[in-house]
UniProtKB/TrEMBL annotation:
Keywords: ATP-binding, Folate biosynthesis, Kinase, Nucleotide-binding, Transferase. GO terms for molecular function: 2-amino-4-hydroxy-6-hydroxymethyldihydropteridine diphosphokinase activity; ATP binding; kinase activity. PROSITE patterns: HPPK. The gene is folK. This is 2-amino-4-hydroxy-6-hydroxymethyldihydropteridine diphosphokinase. It comes from Aeromonas sobria.
Length: 169
């Protein structure tokens, strides 16, 4: 089994779409570990604030299949196939890590946003502080400690998901 980490984000009907994304991931992968939910400003465009979190799951599915499943989940929850990169989202599911795999195809892993976006790194560091970045070598906790926290503002929010109560740290 391989541990995968997936970033979830939404800035359109955020509560509904984040819950729907968690439900879809749970239905496909079974038990999930989830970070808190954070509210963050849109990055790369002017838009409504996002809800973001990271979920971890175990899978024996090949990488390409996981990528296809995540895209299908996005489409099932209102994402347009030709959606622009920096635009509002009903549901955005990004595979951040697939075990310690480093690759360029079918997508770049580890995903670059792990090192550059607080809305990815903080929840990932919260969920797996001792996990080492497969390229950088530092742990997620070390990466978060070194991150310029003034560059992107995040705020943890109370959030309830039927399958579990998300941690409030």
């Amino acid at each position: 089994m391989t541990t995968i980490y997936i970033s979830l984000g939404s800035n359109i009907e955020r509560d509904r779409h984040i819950r729907a994304g968690l439900d879809a991931l749970h239905a496909e992968f079974g038990e999930l570990q989830v970070s808190r939910v954070f509210e963050s400003e849109a990055v790369g465009f002017n838009g409504r604030p996002f809800y973001n979190l990271v979920a971890a799951a175990e899978t024996d599915l090949p990488l390409a299949t996981v990528c296809q499943l995540l895209r299908a989940m996005e489409f099932a929850h209102g994402r347009e196939p030709d959606a622009k990169k920096f635009a509002p989202r009903t549901l955005d599911l990004d595979l951040l890590l697939y075990g310690d795999l480093v690759c360029d195809t079918p997508l770049v892993l580890p995903r670059g946003e792990v090192l550059t976006n607080a809305f990815v790194l903080w929840p990932l560091a919260e969920l797996a502080p001792d996990l080492r970045h497969p390229v950088d070598g530092r742990t997620m906790g070390e990466l978060w400690q070194a991150y310029d926290k003034a560059s992107q503002q995040l705020c943890p929010i109370p959030f309830h998901w039927e399958a579990c109560e998300l941690q409030q740290h």
